[in-house]
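Marked as duplicate of an earlier ticket. Keeping the data here for the record.
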Amino acid sequence: MTIHTPRAVFFDMDDTLLDGHTAMTIAWETVCHDASSRLGCDPEKLRLAIRREASAFWKDESVVGHWRLDLNGAREIVVGRALAAEGFGTTLAHTIAFDYARLHREHLRPFDDAFGTLDAVREAGMRVGLITNGPRPLQRDKIERFGIERYMDVIVIEGEFGAGKPEQAVFAHALRSVGAEPAQAWHIGDNLYADVGGAVAAGLRAAWIHRDRLSLDENAGVKPDRIVSNLTEFRAVLGISA
């Protein structure tokens, strides 16, 4: 199946359009530094413990996917487990999780290639949509703060729609909203399970964006149609000049 001119292109938001990874790095470094001074421990050791517990918590997203609608709650559990594992108890778990959320929001920014790509796709005559997992208030806040809605013909938020990626109903709704068939559409995102797996299962072409920080898991069970490091490369996939 070859698509020369897609009718619709759907974008993931976090770590595709918005640089959540940099915001995450800054936020964790700050909260771990502050917490370590109160706990009397090494901040890097605390950060590694939180990373370890987060990896274990989210290892099978098909099991814990419902926590996407309560990310603060999930984060508090993860931090509590990390603190307990290091022998500190869980008293500071809520404070650390709350401070992280505040700092992440403060440092979140769009990628430099995000809005130029959205403009280019629209100017090429394609319909544009946003498909994002997560709670409605959090994701709507991002959409409003960065003016993302003005680029979109449809926005599908997990906490608003009632289902999230990789469920096929999400992609089916987005397609109906823009009047496109699966074979006429692309979806791009950074999550192999939700973005690539969901899009492929729904019959769309799927692009995986790694932003030079992710590696392809050969055991992921899904295969993207294209792999790109940034949205400028994705424009070329769509036949749009940079």
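See parent ticket for discussion. The chain has two domains: 8-19+110-237, 21-107.
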